[in-house]
Design goal:
7 strands; elongated; 22% strand
Length: 171
């Protein structure tokens, strides 16, 4: 009996210590061209999803040169918001599939300084399109939102984000 246990112990030890030897020299790392092609492909797929969303909802949206989609529902009054303006915004933030991520009803209005607060580039661009009292709908592809990482909470990797934003009357 002791011999059987000894043989099993030696066999298990030898199998557990065995490492798989693979030929890792044949792994192909994509070059700049392949990465650029993949990036173009992903941007095109994001664009198709956004256009389908807009069409399904019948929204009269426009696209900015940066790729931010927008529809200004109410222009508001006065001058457009600009860098260094302190803004209090009411908002709903959704994924493009309709999943609500954040809202001012849940978390309270969001206060930030345009161009200086650590926020998504698309949100800064969206706020610069509004005036006090203004409202708009904005769709941010991943490269203008939270990018590859998401926000580590409710917004996943490479998510397209829809913001409904309202700026109260006072700046």
């Amino acid at each position: 009996m002791l011999i059987i246990i000894l043989i099993l112990a030696v066999a298990l030890t030898s199998f557990s210590c065995r490492s798989e030897t693979g030929n890792y020299n044949n792994i192909q790392v994509p070059g700049k061209k392949e990465l650029a092609d993949m990036n173009r492909y992903l941007i095109q797929k994001d664009r198709e999803r956004i256009e389908n969303y807009i069409e399904r909802r019948g929204l009269p949206m426009k696209e900015s040169p940066s790729g931010l989609w927008y529809y200004i529902e109410n222009e508001g009054y006065g001058t457009l918001l600009a860098d260094n303006d302190r803004v209090l915004m009411e908002y709903n933030c959704f994924l493009i599939d309709g999943t609500r991520c954040y809202s001012s009803q849940e978390l309270g209005p969001k206060e930030l300084i345009i161009g200086r607060s650590e926020t998504q580039p698309g949100l800064n661009q969206a706020l610069r399109m509004l005036k006090p009292g203004g409202e708009g709908i904005f769709i941010m592809p991943p490269f203008l939102g939270f990018g590859l990482k998401g926000d580590g909470n409710r917004i996943p990797s490479r998510a397209t984000i829809v913001y409904e934003i309202k700026i109260p009357a006072e700046k």
